[in-house]
Amino acid sequence: RPLLIILGAIALFVIITFALAAAALGTLNKRFNDLEKKLVTTTTPISTTTNSTPSGSLASILAETVRMQDLLIHLKQFESFARENGNTRAIGTAGFAQTVNYIENQLKTNSYSQLQVIRETFPIQNFSIKGDPILSWSSNGKTENFTYSTNLSRTDFTYANYTAAINLTIYELVQVKNYGCNKDDYANTTGKAVLIMAGGTCTYAEKGELAATKNVSALLFYNHGSTTSSLAPATFRLRQANILPALSLSYAAGRSLFNLLNSSNSVNVTLEIQRENYGTFDVHNICAHTVDGNSTKTIMVGSHSDSVPAGPGINDNGSGSAANLVLALNLARLYSSNSYSKYPYRIRFCWWGGEEIGLTGAIYHVQQAQNSSTPDDLKLFNNLINLNYDMLGSPNYIFGIYNGSSAKAGTSQKAINGSIRVSEAFRNWFNSQNLPWDYTDFSGRSDYGPFLAAGIAAGGLFSGGDGTKTETQRDIYEAKLGQGYGGLPGATYDPCYHKTCDTLKNIDQFGYLKMVQAAAYMLEFLGNQTDLVTWLYPDGRPTQIQLPEDYFPNSDYYV
Ligand SMILES: [Zn+2]
């Protein structure tokens, strides 16, 4: 009987979620055509003679070249790569390989010899769990096994992705304080197995990484049980570099260990996890830089090219990948036209692989770029700014601007100052276009993270993911865009975030076009600065441009 009630509740929840998502998409997409028409009529003709005084309504020649049909051509390609390959473009799949090949091919064939294309390749581990993992506890002379099943609703525990293997081993068990998001939570845990509750302000991967720095021996995560969907063991990924055996327990199993720890002097747990290793598979970054421009002063424009396994990732991040491609190809076309003044800086466009498992492509690039063996013109310190575009076409969108002043503690103040200038320049453009805008998270949860952590200013746009649009936002957007165009308050910005339904239908074309125009404007605006170094770094650059030893990506939306 209780099971039926739970199933009923879940079914109802699923139905409501889908209904809301469908309603949101339908309503928003219908409104696009009207809104586009309305805006087109207010657009003044474009002059394309010189870029020192762009006279078009978008205040940027490059922005005037952005056409929705070009973006759609790329998005349709991405969608078909997913459709033909199990509805995903995640790393390790043919959908990802085809995405990367397509981007590389476009850059090589359509850039009028203005861009030099480089492919970076790095390995990712590939393995599965062999047999059934074992977990048991013993306390006060009593021993009990937990049940393992591959059926999540029936099992007491499952393994964490990227768990280490371990032969049958006994550990003393201790409870981690709070949620295990701070170093202090791991007092007296050296050499022991730790019990960690789900939740808090950090990801599973971050907990795993913190625990490793405290020389913990094994990780037992358990779900928090506060909703019906958080009773079964959670599935999530640790860092690829994780070295600890790690299991994910149901709320009931975790709670029973918690109670034992609180009623007994000592609890031991026994673990066994066997892995089948399949070696590694390759992941790729594609970068393309302008042949012209000062290589020691590089403007980088990045976006990730991989999706999550769960879906085709057309908004996340086909939208950013296609935007980046249109910027690169349109800039190359302008460069080849002779009527457009080339920027004094090198521009490098990059498509990062493996963002969804922890910014792996961007981190690999940063690490390579600070290697002494890297050619001077490709060194990390040449990068003055990293512009990042990850999700630009959310159906219930906001015009989100990374808020430069909300960087994580420990970020170089000089890099923050430059980032704030970029945030303000984006804000000024949206204001000049009479468009609404919001400041959004800048805590390093996308590929700009390792660049910012290394002391390089960063900026970018984000149309919203699994956050919820507020009434206030709706009112502000409606006031600017017209009645009925403010989106749906109470609904997430992207109801298909990391889901099967993140298809072309999930893109709001009006919001998307404006975001890509803003990105184009920013590239041209920075490219035309007479002294970009001083503009970004009025107090000079940080003395060291380097990824800190203890850097770990604040990435995992994907948990
Ligand atoms: Zn993304």
Q: What is this structure, in a nutshell?
A:
The chain has 559 residues and is an alpha/beta fold. It is built from 13 helices and 14 strands. The longest helix is centred in the N-terminal third of the chain and has 40 residues, at 2-41.
Quickly list its features.
14 strands; 14-stranded mixed beta sheet; Glucose Oxidase, domain 1; Aminopeptidase; 34% helix; alpha/beta; disordered N terminus; 2 domains; 559 residues; metalloexopeptidase activity; binds zinc ion; 13 helices
Descriptive account of the structure:
The chain is of the alpha/beta class and 559 residues long. It folds into 2 domains: 2-114 and 291-536, Zn peptidases (Aminopeptidase), CATH 3.40.630; 126-279, Glucose Oxidase, domain 1, CATH 3.50.30.30. Helices cover 34% and strands 21% of the residues. It has 13 helices and 14 strands. The protein has helices at residues 2-41, 61-64, 68-83, 94-109, 204-213, 251-263, 314-335, 360-369, 413-432, 449-453, 471-481, 509-527, 532-536; strands at residues 115-139, 142-145, 157-159, 166-175, 193-197, 218-222, 246-249, 268-290, 294-304, 345-352, 383-389, 400-402, 438-440, 457-462. The radius of gyration is 25 Å and the shape is globular. The chain starts with a helix and ends in a 23-residue tail after the last helix. Bound molecules: zinc ion. Residues 285-521 form the Peptidase M28 domain.
